[in-house]
Design a protein that fits this description.
single chain, about 160 residues, alpha/beta, 5-stranded mixed beta sheet, zinc ion binding, disulfide bond
Amino acid sequence: MLVEGDVKISFVDMLQDIRPFHSFEPTISRYRSSVSTPDLLWTKGLVAYALDPALNETEVKTILGAMSYITNVTGECVKFNPRAPNDNDFVFITSSTTGCYSEVGRQGRGNQTVSVSRASDCVTLGIVMHELLHVLGFWHEHTRLDRDQYIKLLHQNI
């Protein structure tokens, strides 16, 4: 199931309310629109990845460029490494699916698919970075608890 257009969640996650909007004790991470559960964070900021062999050369360059950019802007606090045999949790990046989507944070169940569908024109630097930020645990900024302090809704434009 997709929520917010490109965030993949399971039915069980939905029932468990993985993002407790109704908590009376907002945390800093909820204000920052990121996961707060340690289990959803990548150990030591290391994200193992595998690329779909069906990706073409241009797609691979775009994906690796997005990873490199994120690594650089985080001061190498986040690193993407090709999956090693002992990496149980990893992201599998494919363009053979439909749509652009990812799960938020490390799911802890092995293969975690990130879809950057070529049919949906998702293999751009910006979209790949966007989906990788979901992998790192970030939600969309417009769903932040404090968003109304920074935006003004123009209801006549809705």
